[in-house]
């Protein structure tokens, strides 16, 4: 159980490193979307291991709403012409 969580945390560090390294806003947004997805999957794994469905509901909400907010932010930035295609 602990080994799985340690591996998931190490996999979470990869997009954090990419977000800090790159100056391109689209790459940063992709990295943050990846972080949100990996975090929600970690929460779902923990909820299954603890047999706690309330934690699982939070993981599902993060998984469904986290990436939607990033896509909304991308559309707002595109419409404001802050970022060119």
UniProtKB/TrEMBL annotation:
<keyword id="KW-0472">Membrane</keyword>
<protein>
    <recommendedName>
        <fullName>Sodium:proton antiporter</fullName>
    </recommendedName>
</protein>
<keyword id="KW-0812">Transmembrane</keyword>
<keyword id="KW-1133">Transmembrane helix</keyword>
<feature type="transmembrane region" description="Helical">
    <location>
        <begin position="53"/>
        <end position="74"/>
    </location>
</feature>
